[in-house]
Specification:
Blueprint (H helix, E strand, L loop, with lengths): L2 E4 L5 E3 L5 E9 L8 E3 L9 E7 L2 E10 L1 E9 L6 E17 L1 H4 L2 E2 L10 E4 L5 E3 L22 H10 L3 E3 L2 H12 L3 E5 L22 H11 L6 E5 L13 H15 L7 E4 L10 H17 L6 E4 L14 H18 L12 E7 L5 E7 L5 E2 L7 E5 L2 E2 L2 E6 L5 E6 L8 E4 L10 E2 L8 E5 L1
Parallel strand pairs: 2-8, 8-13, 8-14, 10-13, 14-15, 15-16
Antiparallel strand pairs: 1-3, 3-6, 4-7, 5-6, 7-8, 9-12, 10-11, 17-18, 18-23, 19-25, 20-21, 20-24, 22-23, 24-26
Length: 454
């Protein structure tokens, strides 16, 4: 009996630098002299090279030189006269890994989820391809045990399945659809994230554990879809915002990214990642310090792991005390696609990756401060009075009289009630629940930062 192991319906194959791909073929129970036909939707044959090998009842190989695009149909004869098995919706495009913790999973209400698109597929946790529909992260179906250690606990499984009926909207589909709109290239999303996980749980040193580790599972799944991807989307850090883990966050994330690039033999693999957003929790000084340490590490890491871009999320609304809501995640997906367009596809003429703090000027009387921003698309957009900036000296906030966007559109100016003492420092959106909302005209926010010496 014919079994088509590969390709799958709705599968996306990673294109190469020549805009073509090799379509993997794995057939069981097929005739040794099987003749395959790959066709366009209009029935026209696709020009490609067939390279097949027979071993017993198995036929495997590739159809090489398949152009970027689709959807293609693969016709496989069943062995019965005039009968064919057909694999539909095969695409050649770009694959992106989605990794991190729960805000990458997506915990928004499904009533606000991004609608699916035929040109955006997902490789789900059960190792099956399909159209990308939220929720993308279905632990209870996972092939790898790291994602579901209580599979025998039917009561727990039922509880999780009930939760997925109402929540699970994420950023992946809006990211994919925006890239398709910009590039006219199909997108495949490889779901690898897991809520509540720390960088220690993503340790590359656990690769040998395979599907029993998060890193091992991610590598296995990338190899299962061909071994090459276009880039990594990363949203994680909440579990490391504590006194023990926060100081080492930047070093550990850099190690993870370097290991992934090395393991996949893609030294220039683009990384688009998110700076931590809001957290409605008791704002103790220690909690705020740790949250800011992770945010600052994320900001400082960007040039060290190039090609990479960080996207801020501190302006997005939440569904609970820590999870971005569905509309916020859809917006974040668009932001990440804009950044990916610049970093991964070289579209610098389309905009910048988002505002970054640059030079700071302090007036001679030390009562006025101007912060200049780089990488701004258009100009900065904020309220008449800009919030979120605070100057501190020895831990105490200094009285600020006014703050607003400068006439040049790419700077923020602020005035203080008295001269700033030597040793004063400036922060933006410090703390668990920052109030500043300052964007450029591409909807890319100013990230949380500080301390900046004044």
């Amino acid at each position: 009996m014919l079994e088509i192991v590969s390709p799958q319906h709705h599968q996306v194959i990673q294109r190469d630098d020549s805009d073509v791909a090799s379509l993997p073929i794995d057939l069981r129970g097929a005739p040794r002299d099987v003749t395959l036909e790959l066709k366009h939707p209009n029935g026209e044959a696709v020009a490609c090279q067939v390279e097949l090998t027979s071993e017993g009842d198995r036929v495997h190989g590739v159809l090489s030189g398949v152009p970027t695009g689709g959807p293609y149909q693969l016709f496989v004869p069943t062995g019965e006269p005039g009968e064919w098995s057909i694999i539909d919706q095969i695409w050649v495009g770009d694959l992106w890994v989605l990794a991190g913790q729960s805000n990458m999973d997506g915990c928004g209400k499904l009533s606000g989820a991004e609608p699916p698109s035929d040109s955006v597929s997902a490789f789900y946790y059960d190792d099956c391809w399909d159209v990308a529909r939220d929720p993308l992260c279905r632990y209870n179906e996972a092939a790898d045990p790291v994602h579901w250690n209580a599979v025998e606990d039917r009561e727990e499984v039922a509880r999780w399945e009930h939760t997925m009926r109402t929540t699970g909207a994420g950023l992946g589909i809006s990211f994919g659809k925006e890239l398709v709109r910009r590039l006219d290239v199909p997108v495949g999303l490889i779901a690898c994230s897991h809520g509540g996980t720390s960088l220690d749980q993503w340790d590359p040193g656990l690769l040998s554990e395979g599907g029993r580790s998060l890193y091992g599972s991610m590598i296995r799944r990338v190899r299962a879809v061909g071994g090459k991807v276009r880039g990594l989307l990363w949203y994680q850090g909440e579990s490391d915002a504590n006194p023990q883990a926060a100081p080492a966050y930047g070093e550990k994330l850099a190690h993870l990214i370097a290991s992934l690039r090395s393991e996949l033999d893609q030294p220039d693999l683009p990384v688009i990642y998110v700076q931590l957003g809001r957290f409605y929790e008791d704002p103790t000084p220690e909690a705020e310090r740790c949250w800011h340490l992770v945010r600052q590490a994320q900001l400082q890491l960007e040039p060290k792991i190039a090609p990479a871009a960080m996207v801020a999320a501190s302006d997005l609304s939440l569904d609970d005390k820590i999870h971005v809501d569905a509309l916020g995640l859809r917006r974040l997906g668009l932001r990440m696609a804009r950044a990916a367009h610049v970093v991964a596809y070289g579209a610098e003429d389309q905009g910048e990756i988002g505002p970054r703090p640059g030079a700071v000027e302090v007036s001679e009387d030390r009562r006025r401060v101007t912060v200049h921003f780089e990488s701004v698309t258009g100009g900065l957009v904020g309220t008449l009075r800009v919030y979120g900036f605070v100057a501190k000296y020895e831990g105490d906030a200094l009285l600020m009289e006014w703050c607003g966007v400068g006439d040049d559109g790419v700077s923020v100016m602020m005035g203080f009630a008295g001269p700033l003492p030597d040793g004063a420092e400036l922060y933006y959106n410090y703390g668990l629940n920052p109030q500043g909302i300052l964007l450029d005209e591409w909807d890319m926010p100013v990230p949380c930062f500080g301390p900046m010496k004044l």
